[in-house]
Write a structure and sequence with these properties.
The complex is a heterodimer of chains A (about 80) and B (about 240). Chain A is an alpha+beta fold. Chain A is built from 3 helices and 3 strands, in the order E-E-H-E-H-H. Chain A is flat and about 40 Å long. Chain A starts with a strand and ends with a helix. The N and C termini of chain B lie far apart (about 55 Å). Classes of the chains: A alpha+beta (about 80), B alpha+beta (about 240).
């Protein structure tokens, strides 16, 4: 599964979150470029990334910083996950 | 699709470094990043299918990350090794070593960058660079603890100061992150000791295991307390 994420780093906040089926890779890549061009024209500096994970659960595990704040990440050390 | 020349790629890198890329620059970068697609697909398929691991792939590094890397490291765009890559999070240091061994078998042309031996500003992990001519693909292998540390450092870099990841910014935060990284390294060394074949009586060995388990639990609890102190520090400043 593919995930297109637009992330506002300074606020640690996801602005756009779109999912695509694996078979729609070209569409996902096109969307990423379109979003990048759109934000560039508006002089908006956000991180835009396309990630490829088995499911959303796996994505949230390997890329916590997009979804959890520092307290949540520190606390998860207790659970060891 | 015509292949980009090295000169074209590096000139694009120079423009990205300066900031404010044009739309044409972004289209060209997109084309360059897509050229990593076949190598990326092959590597991800092998890791998922043959090695039975669950990586999260990043077929193309984000534009902002590429521009930052070019500014930070004074390298050319054609030299950036992690345009395409993936991340694997494994349970512990044994699984990490095992994964490296499996990757060595699966891909003949790899280079291993062991950031457990040489941490980068506290960042510990193993990066495997697969040479798949004419491109490279980076595989990050992290233990659960190394991963949590890295996520915390990245999150703090996002919301507090981007230079935190590279040892800059608030020195109190840096000091805490450095201490935690050293603590995790110690804990993982304990884990390794834990697995050594016993050269002693069962009673002595079991007693050592109990001691290591207690030490590990204590260190983990200490880690959480210290990490929470970072948060309190930040909250205090926001008031």
């Amino acid at each position: 599964m593919l995930f297109l994420i637009e992330y506002k780093r300074t606020q640690g906040r996801i602005v756009t979150f779109k999912t695509f089926d694996d078979s729609h890779r070209s569409e996902a890549e096109r969307s990423r470029l379109e979003l990048e061009l759109e934000l560039n024209q508006r002089h908006i500096d956000h991180e835009i990334v396309l990630l490829d994970a088995t499911d959303e659960h796996a994505l949230r595990r390997t890329h916590r910083r997009y979804f959890e704040d520092a307290v949540q990440i520190a606390n998860s050390l207790n659970g060891g996950s | 699709m015509a292949t980009l020349s090295k000169t074209q790629i590096d000139r694009l890198g120079n423009r990205l470094k300066k900031g404010s890329p044009s739309d044409d620059d972004l289209r060209l970068l997109d084309k360059y990043r897509r050229s990593f697609g076949p190598a990326y697909d092959f590597i991800i398929r092998t890791i998922r299918g043959t090695l039975r691991l669950e990586p999260t792939g990043r077929p193309a590094k984000s534009t902002s990350s590429i521009a930052e890397k070019l500014r930070r490291e004074s390298i050319r765009l054609s030299q950036v090794q992690d345009i395409a890559g993936c991340r694997v999070v494994v349970a512990d240091i044994f699984a990490q070593d095992q994964t490296i061994a499996m990757l060595r078998e699966a891909f003949p042309q790899i280079r291993v960058i062991d950031r457990r031996i040489s941490p980068s500003h506290g960042y510990r992990a193993v990066h495997v660079i697969v040479d798949s001519e004419p491109v490279t693909v980076e595989i990050q292998i992290r233990t659960a603890l190394q991963h949590l540390w890295a996520e915390l450092s990245e999150r703090l870099a996002d919301v507090v100061d981007s230079s935190i990841k590279y040892g800059g910014g608030d020195q109190q935060i840096i000091q805490i992150l450095t201490t935690e990284s050293e603590l995790i390294a110690k804990l993982e060394l304990f884990e390794k000791d834990f697995s050594s074949p016993p050269n002693e009586t069962a009673e002595t060995h079991n007693s050592k295991i109990r001691q290591i388990q207690e030490d590990t639990a204590r260190m983990k609890a200490d880690l959480v307390v210290r990490l929470r102190s970072i948060i309190s520090l930040l909250k205090g400043r926001q008031r």
